[in-house]
Design brief:
The chain is mostly helical and about 290 residues long. Helix content is about 70%, strand content about 0%. The model has no long low-confidence stretch (mean pLDDT about 90).
Length: about 290
Amino acid sequence: MTRTQNNAAWFLVLPVLVLVAFNAIIPLMTVVNYAVQDSFGGNVFFFEGTRWFEAVLASDRFHQALGRQILFTFTILAIEIPLGVGIALCMPRRGIWVSVCLVLMALPLLIPWNVVGAIWNIFALPELGLLGRMLNGLGFDYNFTRGVGAAWFTMILMDVWHWTSLVVLLAYAGLISIPDAYYQAARIDGASKWAVFRYIQLPKMKRVLTIAVLLRFMDSFMIYTEVFVLTGGGPGNSTTMLSIDLVKLALGQFDLGTAAAMSIIYFLLILIFSWIFYTVMMRGESQQ
C-alpha cells in the first residue's frame, strides 16, 4: 500500500519557525556582524576579521572571568546534583505528603531571579540579615560585601537554595517511574539499600539526571541577575562572572565589537561543554 504524504502540518510549525527566526537567528546574525566589523559612527562599518576574537582570547580579564565562571558552575553541579538526588530518595512515594513535598520543592522555582537576589542580599547583611547576624554571633567574621570568601559562600548558598528543587523534581520523576517489580526482585535477592540505588535507581534515573545536569550547567554558566543583585560582581571583581563582565563591556564601556566577539565565544563554550556532558552521560545508552 502507498501512503499519501500530507504536508499541511508544516503550516502549524511555520509560526514557531518565524518566532525562532526573530528571537534567535536575526539577533545572532546582528552579533556576528558586530563581531567582525568596527564603526566610527554614521552607520559606516569597517571589516576587522578576527581582530576582536583575538583580543578577547588574549585578554587576562576574559581568562579570569572564565575561571570564576567554571569554578562556580562546577561547584554548583557538585553540590546540587547529589543533594537533589538525596532529597528525592527521602521523599514519600504515596499519600498526602507527596503533594505537600512537591509543592514545597516547587516554591523556590516560582520566585523571580531578581527577587531571589534581593531576598538573599537582605538575608545575608552582616548587621540586619538573619544569616549575617547568626554567623557573626557564632564567631565568624562574615561580611559578603567585603570578604571574597563570604561573597562566594553566600552566592553558592543562594543558588543551591534556589535551584536544588529542580534536580529534586526531576530525580523524583525518575524514581516514581521505576516499576515495583524491580524492588520486589531486589528484596527477594536480599539486596542492600546501596545495591538497590547502584543497580536499579541510579541507572533508571540516568536520562532525567542528564537533563538535570544540562539544565543546571547551562543556567549556572549564564547566571547574571541573582549575582548582580546580590554582590554586583564584588567585592572588587571577585564574583564578576562572564555574563556580568560581558554586560560591563557592552553597556558600561560601549565596546560593541569586543563584546560581540566575547558573546559568540561564550555561546560556543556553552555548546561545547553541553555536548561533552551529554556525550559522557549518555555513553553506552544505545547498547541498552
